[in-house]
């Protein structure tokens, strides 16, 4: 499946680059690896301030619509998959294995999720909310067929279905593992936080931890019987 994901990403990146979308330049692909140009930019999630949040926000929303106008939905358009140049604050989009056609059964859902991800992040990180509630699915006007070109380039619908089937089977398993981990390791966390003392108590525990605990933990805990066994092993010659 990793080979299929790499093949799909390379195919989409190549088509997008050839059509002047802000993506890395794809150089080559082999098995599960992709070689591309280095982008001198930071992930959006690492950026705390922007000269003009509204400008970048508008460019990202335009990109979502531009993708759709060419028959494509990114499907994971968020702060983790958007790089921003520090000097120009121009965006670069990465990560395309989950990209789908606007003709996909869930295209509208993925489109709206991409829009929501950007809205939520800008509101939380930059305290910015646009006056316009859009873009909406009804705003999409198809003028190109890059989704068809990608299929013609070698990444067929059959391969896409295989990859999507695998993602649907694996994703629920990963979600269940995370939920079980929270249930087992996070019991009582909400009650502690609701009292307002959870964080203070945790800090107090760190402060009261006696010195030398780590050093003591590193020492081997061997009894008298263990020492005798080690002595015997040390005096044994293995031929």
* Overall number of domains: 1
What's the N-to-C terminus distance?
47 Å
Question: What is the 3D form?
Answer: globular
Spatially, the strands of the biggest sheet line up as 3-5-6
Please work out how many helical segments DSSP would assign. Answer: 9
What would the average pLDDT be, to the nearest integer?
77
- CATH H level, superfamily name: Transferase(Phosphotransferase) domain 1
Question: CATH fold name, please?
Answer: Transferase(Phosphotransferase), domain 1
The CATH level-2 architecture is identified as Orthogonal Bundle
Q: Proportion of β residues? A: 5-15%
CATH class: Mainly Alpha
- Give me the secondary-structure category: mainly alpha
Query: What series of H and E elements makes up the topology?
Result: HEEEHEEEEHHHHHHH
**Computed Rg:** 26 Å
Helix content: 40-55%
Strand segment count: 7
Poorly predicted sequence stretches spanning 5 or more consecutive residues? 186-223, 235-239
**How can the largest sheet be summarized?**
3 strands, antiparallel
In short:
By secondary structure, the chain is mainly α.
What does this structure look like?
By secondary structure, the chain is mainly alpha-helical. The chain has one domain: Transferase(Phosphotransferase), domain 1 (Orthogonal Bundle), CATH 1.10.510. The chain is 52% helix and 9% strand. The protein is built from 9 helices and 7 strands; from the N terminus they run αβββαββββααααααα. A 3-stranded antiparallel beta sheet has the order 3-5-6, with helices on one face. Strands 1-2 form a two-stranded antiparallel sheet. Helix 2 packs antiparallel against helix 3. The radius of gyration is 26 Å and the shape is globular.
């Amino acid at each position: 499946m990793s080979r299929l994901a790499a093949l799909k990403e390379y195919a989409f990146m190549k088509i997008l680059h050839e059509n002047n979308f802000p993506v890395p330049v794809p150089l080559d692909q082999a098995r599960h690896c992709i070689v591309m140009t280095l982008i001198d930019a930071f992930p959006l999630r690492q950026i705390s301030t922007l000269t003009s949040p509204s400008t970048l926000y508008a460019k990202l929303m335009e990109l979502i619509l531009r993708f759709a106008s060419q028959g494509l939905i990114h499907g994971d358009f968020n702060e983790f998959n958007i790089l921003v140049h520090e000097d120009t604050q121009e965006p670069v989009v990465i990560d395309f294995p989950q990209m789908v056609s606007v003709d996909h059964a869930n295209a509208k859902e993925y489109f709206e999720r991409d829009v929501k991800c950007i809205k939520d992040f800008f509101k939380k990180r930059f305290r910015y909310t646009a006056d316009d509630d859009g873009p909406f699915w009804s705003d999409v006007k198809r003028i190109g067929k890059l989704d068809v070109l990608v299929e013609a380039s070698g990444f067929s619908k059959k391969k896409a279905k295989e990859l999507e089937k695998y993602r649907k089977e694996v994703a629920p398993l990963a979600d269940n593992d995370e939920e079980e981990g929270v249930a087992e390791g996070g019991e009582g966390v909400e009650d502690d936080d609701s009292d307002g003392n959870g964080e203070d108590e945790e800090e107090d525990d760190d402060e009261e931890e006696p010195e030398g605990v780590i050093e003591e933990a590193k020492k081997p805990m061997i009894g008298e019987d263990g020492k005798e066994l080690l002595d015997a092993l040390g005096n044994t010659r293995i031929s």
